[in-house]
Amino acid sequence: MTALRAPVLAAGLAAVLALLTGCVPAEDSSPSPSTTAAAPDPSEDATSLPVPSQSPKAAKKKDDKAPRAREDHTNPASIGVVVNKLRPLVPLDYHPGDLRRPAVSIGTGGESALLRDAVADATEKMFSAAAADGAPMVMVSGFRSYATQVDTYNHWVRQHGSEAAADMISARPGYSEHQTGLSMDVGDSTGACNLQQCFADTAAGIWLANNAVRFGFIIRYSPGEEDVTGYSPEPWHLRYVGKKVAGKMAQRNINSLEEYFGLPGAPGYS
Ligand SMILES: [Zn+2]
Hints:
By secondary structure, the chain is α+β, with helices and mostly antiparallel strands.
């Protein structure tokens, strides 16, 4: 087993702290939620970023028009993709081709500061609107590659001695929604409740619950949906689905993508 990379160790420490406080981020154990201004990180340089594989024309498409069929729940490049414990990414090591760093306050570096282009656009608009309303926010974690998730998950298997125990706090590689580049974790400007349930009571958390839909985001893991989504509530974890789907879900008072798209619930791995 190779040595853990520094970000994973940092993530481990953060998650251990979370354990000590009784708050265990279910899917979000890998990010290193630095809550201050983004620390300089050499890996943020564009030289280490993936090269977009889409044509410039395709990459310019925004919102619901991007990318490809929006109702395709299996294609990981579709904004309609549904990833859960029964629906891994196909291929497992899918890597988006149009990742970029949004121009917002970001408390992390490297790949986790990236989102898909259309999601980054929506994020910039949303963070700007939130700040104007007195609810400044920080992006805590965005994209997470398959390789990072392998390191993170293996760390937790070693830490707890079994996959069953690791599954309680970390997504298996290829099963994290963060790997789509359509999801991010958000914190408030103080970072006091990052990746904790109390985020829901911060100004940022309240603002998101009321307004994220206007920018095409949903809060992916809601209270009372554990048997459907497979995860404990995460008021900080947003998923971009486009304004149309987000609006319809809100209209119909549906919280989970599984229910909205008529897909089976995924309380655990098969
Ligand atoms: Zn998350």
